[in-house]
Design brief:
Elements: E1 10-21, E2 27-42, H1 46-54, E3 61-66, E4 75-78, E5 83-93, E6 96-103, E7 111-112
Parallel strand pairs: 2-7
Antiparallel strand pairs: 1-2, 1-4, 2-3, 3-6, 4-5, 5-6
């Protein structure tokens, strides 16, 4: 098997979600849009771990995707793991957009319009 540098190792969905409240004030989430992309997932570095501890933002992993594909989505769904992640930070490194992700307690059944 040949492994190429900067090649994708995971497919994921970028999710655009809107939060709305009903007449009683109950919060609900609605899926506005989604986009499947291929990215390079990696663990965070020692330095990033301590920076996240100091800022009280628990970053679990990071994923790099092609920068033009990122649409300011705030959630990521990884079908392989069947997990949702919240995008905590996003910054561009050349042609790549690096997303720092924290695991979310979001569930499929809590999102109106879930169809993936």
């Amino acid at each position: 098997m040949i492994v190429y540098p900067n090649s994708g190792n995971i497919s994921l969905f970028l999710l655009r979600v809107k939060t709305a409240a009903d007449a009683l004030g109950n919060q609900s989430m609605r899926l506005v849009g989604s986009k499947m992309v291929v990215g390079m997932m990696s663990s965070i570095t020692f330095k990033e771990f301590y920076a996240s501890k100091e800022s009280h933002v628990a970053v679990d992993c990071k994923v790099a995707i092609n920068a033009p594909l990122y649409d300011q989505s705030k959630f990521v769904y990884v079908p392989y793991e069947d997990k949702f992640y919240r995008v905590e930070r996003a910054f561009q490194k050349g042609m790549w957009m690096e997303l720092s992700l924290s695991e979310s307690d979001l569930k499929k059944e809590n999102i109106e319009g879930w169809n993936l």
